[in-house]
Amino acid sequence: MGILENTLRQIENLDKEAIAQAEERLDNLIKPIGSLGALEDIAAKMAGITGKVKNKISKKNIVVMCADNGVCDEGVSAAPQEITYAMANYFTMGVTGVCVLAEHNNAELTIVDIGVKGKFDNPKIINKKIAEGTKNILKGSAMTREEAVRAIEIGIETVDKLVAEGYDLLGTGEVGIGNTTTSAAVLSVLSELPVETVVGKGAGLTEEQYINKKRVISEAITLNSPNKEDVIDVIAKVGGFDIAGLCGCYLGAAKNRVPIVIDGFISSAAALCAYRLNPLARDYMFSSHLSAEPGAAYMMKELGLEPILNLRMRLGEGTGCPMAFNIIEAALAAMNNMYTFNETIMSNENLVDIREK
């Protein structure tokens, strides 16, 4: 049995008993019932993931999958493809958006070259290169089915290693010029939404370039005719190595019963793929923020998840994850450290029961 098939079989439901116990505790904290809103939902979900009512995060890590996309040959991005290679190196210098925000929130990064054009001489970049970028989807499939499966399995293996090293809260990020094009294509196919609905301008396209981007995606879908019932076929035909790798990260997190945070549009495309491969994988995901990309809201609807934040961000890299980490840890702090009414000194005659307010 292959790594992917084995992983899909190992993913289980959340612990419903732990969720019920967590909800009971939340309802009995010294506050009106439900008054902490989404923080209560997060704390209860975490209980379901770990099987424990009280949880504390020890180590946080954001996996950044780096890959190039052959569709860049069609002028779908305002940035040159060389930016992918440069950004991967910048991540190791601690100077990009996700680096700064991760450091601020005491999180670490794992930088994976899963398909960047060019060879790195950088020990901080993990070499898992499948190929030097995907092929141009306007001329054929992005990759072979075997490459798509291998990319997913790289994500699973990456998470397995991090969990073994004690990381218990994960995030997802990426860099790859042209990957809003591949993500929009994946969403359009899996959701059967029109290309015009889900495609955005990415990194600052002109109106002319935007029109071209929509044309390229539409023609690529027609040419490759991906089977929406076969997620791996969709990834192989119109996706990217970064999307496939992150898809594996979500599956690996679910298998290991570790929470994992979605960043933006590209990370969401990968999450949607993981969800379609095994719907239970969604239960281990948290959505960090609502990306400003037009397709992001549709992605969340397909996943049935509500973003924790809405900051009009569209940078990618994993930048939404560190801020979501902070909110998740705040939810756990409330669960762990607030008293219930039974834990409060009940002899206090002035104690007022405010749970129904």
UniProtKB/TrEMBL annotation:
InterPro entries, alphabetized: Nict_dMeBzImd_PRibTrfase, Nict_dMeBzImd_PRibTrfase_bact, Nict_dMeBzImd_PRibTrfase_N, Nict_dMeBzImd_PRibTrfase_sf
Active site, renumbered: 317 (proton acceptor)
Pathway(s) the chain acts in: Nucleoside biosynthesis; alpha-ribazole biosynthesis; alpha-ribazole from 5,6-dimethylbenzimidazole: step 1/2
CDD domains (alphabetical): DMB-PRT_CobT (cd02439)
Catalytic activity: 5,6-dimethylbenzimidazole + nicotinate beta-D-ribonucleotide = alpha-ribazole 5'-phosphate + nicotinate + H(+)
Cleavable signal peptide: none
Keyword Glycosyltransferase: yes
Segments forming a coiled coil: none
Function of the protein: Catalyzes the synthesis of alpha-ribazole-5'-phosphate from nicotinate mononucleotide (NAMN) and 5,6-dimethylbenzimidazole (DMB).
Keywords assigned: Cobalamin biosynthesis, Glycosyltransferase, Transferase
UniProt protein name: Nicotinate-nucleotide--dimethylbenzimidazole phosphoribosyltransferase
Enzyme class at the top of the EC tree: transferase
Pfam families: DBI_PRT (PF02277)
Gene3D superfamilies reported for this sequence: 1.10.1610.10, 3.40.50.10210
Molecular function terms, GO-annotated: glycosyltransferase activity
Family, similarity comment: Belongs to the CobT family.
Gene coding for it: cobT
EC number in record: 2.4.2.21
Domain of life: Bacteria
